[in-house]
């Protein structure tokens, strides 16, 4: 009996640890889908990564809600980048999962096709906030700050240094 | 008795979830070994990542079978890149495991050493197909399309947007 | 009874596999924190990633012990990079965990803000050695070799090709 209870407890502990690992993988997947969505002009898929009350904030734009994300992807500015050949690449994130919320800190690089190869147009610090919903993990907030010597990206990157 | 059956079922479910996570890690490892193999001219190791019926397809080459991969690594073209200093870097992939098959979508960048640092020579979309074999996961297909404004890389990248 | 023993064995095997996966995630986290620490001048956090007897070795420096790491982060050289805008980005590593030790092989890129976007200043091969301590995983050694056509980075990168 006591041993059975011990097994049950160990199993429950393990289930919770496995869920944590699965959450980690789900967050990677979510963050790594952003590039493919915006670089192919897949406005519906790009919007579908976000929860309804999301905010996407950078020096280039302030987008509230999935419809605004879709509109940005379809905008002439983004379409021009796609015609030129663009790649929005995230670095492997530092992920912190806390129950039904998670944060991922990444560097992002935007490469643009040019005459002699590729230019590195933007290198930024990114804070991605995520929420577990009935339909799986969704993005709720992204703050993007260009790394140009100003302190703004630092306030994002130090978030990767918190916690154990 | 009934409780024992319950424990057994939970354990089996957990074993299957852990295998899925291990597969994910194995795919990362497989895809991330390609760069070190080709950048060091390790033709045997490069060939060993692939299953016998593999196809490696890009605008630069169409390689069928591990021997063709080894030959490409030993080719004068690849050796010249290695002498110059080259780095084939994959982005963190979007991995989808389905039983004994898996797909990983990545961006790849090829950096070449130059007078004043590094040039970004190629930025591409990559579809990696993998198979579980008796010897572990192996690559069966890679399609590589340069991101230059043409639609070819888009058909690869949208593969990262499928599924849950 | 025999069945109970079977359950117990399966549970123990699973616990060990989950720990291996958690170690993998911990190593990713450790390696991916280096960039945010040095790019924000967080000398304490940068030093805190390393164990007391660590060695950090590159063509630029040879640092022994966390205090030397902190000093490097606070040095005029690093501070000048930070003022210009720098991003030390690691590729997704090839991680090998062996009990209380682990190795991660990465490519690193250092981007520097410039007039027209970003220059790729350094692309290197990195070997990170890690140790499980009472306070969690810590770095014990990093060897960084610039990829410039010389054989030094190759001896690091081939480490990613060892093992299963």
Describe the fold and architecture.
Three copies of one chain form a homotrimer. Chain A is an alpha+beta fold. Chain A has one domain: Nuclear Transport Factor 2, Chain: A (Roll). Chain A has five helices and seven strands. In chain A, a hairpin with a 2-residue loop joins strand 6 and strand 7. The two termini of chain A are 36 Å apart. The mean pLDDT of chain A is 95. Chains A and B meet through helix 1, helix 4, strand 3 and strand 6 of A and helix 1, strand 5 and strand 6 of B.
Chain-wise SSE layout:
The structure is a homotrimer of 164-residue chains.
Chain A (H helix, E strand, L loop, with lengths): L1 H38 L3 H6 L1 E8 L4 E3 L1 H9 L1 H9 L1 E5 L3 E5 L2 E14 L2 E17 L2 E11 L5 H6 L7
Parallel strand pairs in A: 1-7
Antiparallel strand pairs in A: 1-2, 3-5, 4-5, 5-6, 6-7
* Total E-strand runs of chain A: 7
CATH class of chain A: Alpha Beta
The CATH architecture category of chain A equals Roll
Shape of chain A: elongated
> How much helix is in the residues of chain A?
40-55%
Low-confidence stretches of chain A: none
Oligomer: homotrimer
Number of helices of chain A: 5
The string of secondary-structure elements of chain A, in order, is HHEEHHEEEEEH
Task: Give Rg of chain A in angstroms.
Answer: 19 Å
What is the compact description of this entry?
Chain A has 164 residues and is α+β, with helices and mostly antiparallel strands.
């Amino acid at each position: 009996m006591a041993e059975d209870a011990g097994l049950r407890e160990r199993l429950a502990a393990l289930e919770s640890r496995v869920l944590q690992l699965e959450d980690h993988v789900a967050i990677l997947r979510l963050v790594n889908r952003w590039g493919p969505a915006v670089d192919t002009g897949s406005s519906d898929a790009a919007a579908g990564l976000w929860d309804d009350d999301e905010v996407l904030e950078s020096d280039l734009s302030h987008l509230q809600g999935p419809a605004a994300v879709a509109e940005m992807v379809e905008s002439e500015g983004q379409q021009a980048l796609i015609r030129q050949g663009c790649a929005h690449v995230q670095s492997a994130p530092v992920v912190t999962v806390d129950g039904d919320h998670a944060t991922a800190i990444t560097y992002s690089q935007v490469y643009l096709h040019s005459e002699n190869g590729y230019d590195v147009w933007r290198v930024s610090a990114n804070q991605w906030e995520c929420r577990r919903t009935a339909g799986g993990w969704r993005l709720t907030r992204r703050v993007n700050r260009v790394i140009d010597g100003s302190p703004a990206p630092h306030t994002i990157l130090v978030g990767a240094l918190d916690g154990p």
